[in-house]
Amino acid sequence: MPWDRNQMAARAAEELEDGMYVNLGIGIPTLVANYVGDKDITLQSENGMLGMGPFPYEGEEDPDLINAGKQTITELNRTAYFDSAMSFGMIRGGKIAAAILGAMEVAENGDLANWMIPGKLVKGMGGAMDLVAGVEKVVVVMDHTNKAGETKLLKACTLPLTGTGVVDRIITDLGVFDVVEGGLKIVETAPDVTEDEIRSKTEATIV
User: Fold this and answer.
1) Which of 115, 155, 168, 200 has the lowest tally of Cβ within 10 angstroms?
2) CA 95/CA 10 separation, integer angstroms
């Protein structure tokens, strides 16, 4: 049984350790904030917030409190606010331990494409290029295949790249994969998902 979005986010939250400063990308990664639990994790939003809380309950939204994806969020008793220059100084200066990002494609060597599809209207790169270059660990959370059923784990990306050789671990609805020498290594599978099913839906080399 493949994981749903919330189960993928909960699995991604297991990657986090006490004391980490972590950036969450747009999409499924934003859900990770709901699964941090008792861990002492400080979430950073590149629009200028350190100490991001989980999503608010309905009726408790503050329209002035948003993440980089323009979703309403909550603050904590230790939340700090600052401008974008300070935010990207943290990212480029190596102060953020991990980024959990979405993706359109990931290649078997860790190349990441997550910001545009040619011919479609885009808002721009955002902070993704800085994040993959500046953080210690990049975890991608995404569906294993696109809406057409085509794999998103490829031998080589076909879309414009965000970064080359930057992805460390991939969490999809089918399982968890590490980028290793020669391809992708299966670390864990979702319940009742077989290695054969994963191989049939993966173009990248499984080692």
Assistant:
1) 200
2) 24
Q: Judging by DSSP bridges, how do beta strands 42-45 and 175-180 pair with one another? A: unpaired
Q: Give 152-161 pLDDT, tens digit per residue.
A: 999 999 999 9
Question: d(Cα 64, Cα 47) in Å, to the nearest integer?
Answer: 12
Helix (H) or strand (E) holding 154: strand 153-154
Tokens of 50: 């350190």
Domain of 63, CATH number, reads 3.40.1080.10
- The three-class DSSP label of residue 143 is coil
How far is it, in rounded angstroms, from Cα 193 to Cα 97?
31
Q: How far is CA 144 from CA 3, 103, 114, 151, in A?
A: 11, 10, 14, 6
Three-state SS for 186?
strand
- Residue 206 DSSP class: B
Q: List the catalytic residues.
A: 46
> pLDDT tens digits, residue range 116-167?
777 776 666 778 889 999 999 999 999 999 999 999 999 999 999 999 999 9
